[in-house]
Write a structure and sequence with these properties.
The chain is an alpha+beta fold. The protein has four helices and four strands. Strand 2 and strand 3 form a beta hairpin. It is globular and about 50 Å long. 14% of the residues are buried. The model has no long low-confidence stretch (mean pLDDT 90).
Amino acid sequence: MVLLRARMRIAAAERTKVIGSLSRIVGPIRATPGCISCHLYADVSDPGLLLFLQAWTDADDLASHLPPSCARVLLSALDCAVDRPDVRVDTLTDTQGLDFLARCLDADPTA
């Protein structure tokens, strides 16, 4: 799995426009072959901070199927950032869930 994460701080005057633009491309990205998920998040303690997160089956799907129009909207949103945005593409080789948390509890000597 490949995660594309774009974390950006947006000025209050641009926030509504940026959220509207990114919200419009969530659906088309989700409908793209190879896309596992696509979400836009706002930080509850810092409303100027947005996270645009996409999960893809692999890097080839991300590179070949991300619609160019959606990539342009994302790049335009990143241009509105008040400081350097943090954009990462991470390849995951392992995923764990609740079992991992249960093992952490079992290993806790203070429990």
